[in-house]
Design a protein that fits this description.
about 35% helix; elongated; Udp-n-acetylmuramoylalanyl-d-glutamate--2,6- Diaminopimelate Ligase, Chain: A, domain 1; alpha/beta; 5-stranded mixed beta sheet
Length: about 250
């Protein structure tokens, strides 16, 4: 198989045209005609993940977060420049599926991991999903449930709700949806929440739970399994560690 064959598989599941206008989803770097024998799937397109791909002898790296977000910088002294230089030297093609994957699958995977039922789309843009717990939970039980099902050690909680059953989820940064969701569900699970979002949760009798951006790492195994099923190639999973430590 060649790089373009893998891109076609990705497009069949996560069409690039549905990405957000500001996003940089798609083919990032490399030769579309290059032969591929081994792929790495990771959360972030960064030097750490690229080094893993090199060590594993991969020809292609597929990530959720792209590296081509800001102005292209080919200075090899910068992190982006070093990333590009190293990928070219080692002949590793780079492809990222970001908000298109979010819309199709990310929050479905998270909702399923949280054991929600009757999962449905919340908003027209297709990003947020909502569903129901099998039975109401207290706030403390719900937080414990999230830690167990999403494999996180700590969460940040604001607001209060005596009984939680309806839940919305948006992996990554989901603060833009708070105003809409506060009247639809008992609790909203997302990441990267700012300080004043907490005040809003208290004012509106609504539970906000920040599980961190890194919870999106769920996509690594899910996407790797799709590629294993639809290609004849070896697919390996990056360790994709969190950038932050919680001390």
């Amino acid at each position: 198989m060649i790089v373009q064959d893998i891109i076609d598989i990705m497009q069949s599941h996560f069409p690039e045209h549905i990405q957000e206008e500001w996003d940089k989803t798609g083919f990032q770097l490399g030769d579309r005609q290059q032969k591929v024998s081994k792929i790495m799937v990771g959360l972030d397109a960064d030097i750490r993940t690229l080094d893993e791909a090199i060590d594993q002898g991969c020809d292609m790296l597929i990530t959720h977060h792209p590296f081509l977000f800001n102005k292209l910088d080919l200075d090899f002294k910068t992190s982006t420049g070093r990333f590009i230089q190293k990928a070219i030297i080692h002949h590793i093609a780079i492809y990222s599926a970001h908000t298109n994957l979010d819309k199709v699958a990310m929050n479905v995977w998270l909702a399923e991991a949280m054991q929600l039922r009757h999962i449905e789309v919340c908003e027209d843009d297709g990003l947020v999903r909502k569903g129901q717990l099998s039975q109401p939970m207290s706030m403390n039980d719900f937080v414990s449930h999230l830690k167990q099902t999403l494999h996180v050690d700590v969460v940040k909680v604001a607001g209060k709700k005596d009984a939680i059953q309806s839940v919305a989820v948006c992996g990554g940064s989901g603060s833009d949806y708070i105003d809409v969701l506060k009247n639809q569900v008992d609790a909203y699970v997302t990441g990267d929440l700012k300080y004043h979002a907490g005040m809003q949760a208290y004012d509106d009798d609504f539970l906000l739970v920040d599980v961190g951006h890194h919870v999106e790492v769920i996509m690594v195994k899910k996407l790797a399994d799709i590629l294993r099923e639809e290609s004849s190639l070896e697919v390996v999973e990056s360790t994709s560690p969190d950038y932050y430590q919680y001390l």
